[in-house]
Structure of SRPBCC family protein:
Amino acid sequence: MSKLTAITVKTAINANSDKVWSFWTEPEHIKQWNNASPDWYTPKAENDLKKGGKFSSRMEAKDGSMGFDFEGTYDEVIPNKRIKYTLDDGRKVNIAFVKANKGITITETFEPESQNPVDMQRQGWQAILDNFKKYVESR
């Protein structure tokens, strides 16, 4: 199987780094923003935010038609700066939190899976990131 090119998504958030970090990492917040569209939600999220720590979130369609677990292990955690993790299927993800003129820019780079089209994966991850931005900026 050939390795697919990594995908990068990003957004700029008008908020301070402590707020962005806590909203990104705390399960009670993750459950509020972790979906790509309004017909999905995250009923469960757990996060042991440290190197070697595990995380998981359950994403489900609101109509009950489908759902999946998103799980992995942290490879690196630098508060307010960077998170690197490995998903349970072996794919790597790198998230950078960089101070910008008006807030924080989040850049996520991830290895795509091979079941779904790359464009669909990019759109899905970008939609979740956009939802995170809306959630943070509305609170």
Q: What stands out?
A: The two ends are 44 Å apart (CA to CA).
